[in-house]
Write a structure and sequence with these properties.
Radius of gyration: 20 Å
Shape: globular
Number of strands: 19
Number of domains: 2
CATH superfamily of the largest domain: Ribonuclease Z/Hydroxyacylglutathione hydrolase-like
CATH class of the largest domain: Alpha Beta
Order of helices and strands: EEEEEHEEEEEEHEHEHEEHEHEHEHE
Structural class: alpha/beta
Distance between the termini: 57 Å
Strand order of the largest sheet: 7-8-9-10-11-18-19
CATH architecture of the largest domain: 4-Layer Sandwich
Strand content: 15-25%
Number of helices: 8
CATH topology of the largest domain: Metallo-beta-lactamase, Chain A
Helix content: 10-25%
Largest sheet: 7 strands, mixed
Length: about 350
């Protein structure tokens, strides 16, 4: 490898000295390359943004008026002394890994990713590289996801049983990515209602050509009485709220990878939790890293210490890097419509 690293790690984010840009910075910078539109990666306040064409509409919706340039998957762009390209990460629609090449040396920043295709997000594509900067949100062997089709059938059966009992089904899911993945994956039982935060994202993605089933925005005159047996998809913070109680008799559930941990499910006082994650599980992380052929791995957020140790035992030069990434923050209860 070259003596000077292609990317460095600073208190503002991942920095490329030869290109004078940052990737997913958490402090305001002049030039920010963004992996995807979740708010822990795409933050307000940068002077210029670069992201995939598919990610930009949601970013503009969330960040407001920004100076931004779009780039196609696989397109190469010269910035200063390096060449950058964006490659599908499989995390949510428009998400990307960002490859940075200098004099034949390639470093890849994964952002967030999952390796199982979900039929909605652009499927993960491994990028050969020398160094891979990887999340490890679920970097413990206990996290092993079942096939998506199996879980979606369980969600559909839960919805059908609730509808047969005269109840509405309220499913908590993050409004960007998880909600649309559930919409695209569940079976047809009855009408689907959505919280306004979810429906705004639905409209943006539909306008881009993503295939989503018909949904109805919940609100005045649209509830469990007008649409009996409906499935309601809303941000997690809506569960147990006054907004949710307006639907009448209902069952609630939460869709998240964290539902694999019984203690977390108990603390949320949820009887039903579906293990659905937009992040790679432990085998997925390992398969993605192996597929790159990399020599060095930088682990950024999640179970960094145990995952780094495991990688070191497998012969990788593995290092922990402190970042300010995490789970997609929930919409606060105060923003939930009355």
């Amino acid at each position: 490898m070259a003596k000077d690293p292609v990317l460095t790690f600073t208190d503002r984010g991942i920095y490329c000295p030869a290109g004078d840009f940052f990737i997913d910075p958490w402090r305001p910078v002049d030039q920010a390359l963004i992996t995807h539109g979740h708010s822990d990666h795409a933050r307000w306040g940068h002077r210029r943004y670069l992201a995939t064409h598919q990610a930009l509409p949601v970013m503009r919706h969330r960040l407001g008026q920004i100076e931004a340039q779009g780039i196609a998957y696989g397109e190469s762009l010269r910035i200063g002394g390096v060449t950058v390209s964006f490659h599908p990460a499989g995390h949510i629609p428009g998400s990307a890994q960002i490859a940075v090449e200098r004099s034949g040396e390639v470093w890849v920043v994964s952002g967030d990713y999952k390796v199982e295709p979900d039929g909605l997000a652009e499927a993960f594509a491994p990028v050969p590289c020398h160094a891979f900067i990887s999340e490890c949100t679920f970097g413990l062997p206990v996290f092993r996801w079942r096939p998506q089709a199996v879980v979606m059938n369980e969600v559909t059966d839960w919805w059908a049983a609730n509808a047969a009992a005269g109840k509405v089904s309220i499913l908590g899911a993050y409004s960007l990515g998880k909600a649309q993945r559930l919409l695209a994956g569940v079976g047809a039982v009855g009408p689907i209602l959505t919280h306004g935060a979810v429906e705004q994202v639905n409209e943006i993605l539909r306008n881009q050509g993503y295939d989503l089933p018909a949904t109805i925005r919940a609100g005045q005159g649209v509830d469990g009485r007008t649409h009996p047996g409906a499935l309601v998809i809303a941000p997690p913070s809506a569960l147990g709220s006054a907004w949710a109680r307006k639907f009448g008799p209902a069952e609630e559930a939460f869709a998240s990878g964290w539902m694999a941990v019984r203690g977390i499910r108990r603390r949320r006082a949820l009887g039903t939790g579906f293990v659905v994650s937009d992040h790679a599980d432990f085998p997925g992380l390992l398969s993605a890293i192996r597929a790159t052929g990399c020599e060095r791995v930088f682990v950024t957020h999640g179970y960094t210490a145990p995952f780094r140790r495991f990688l070191a035992e497998q012969g990788y030069d593995a290092v922990i890097v402190a970042t300010e990434y995490g789970e997609e923050p929930e919409e606060p209860v105060e923003t939930i419509e009355s």
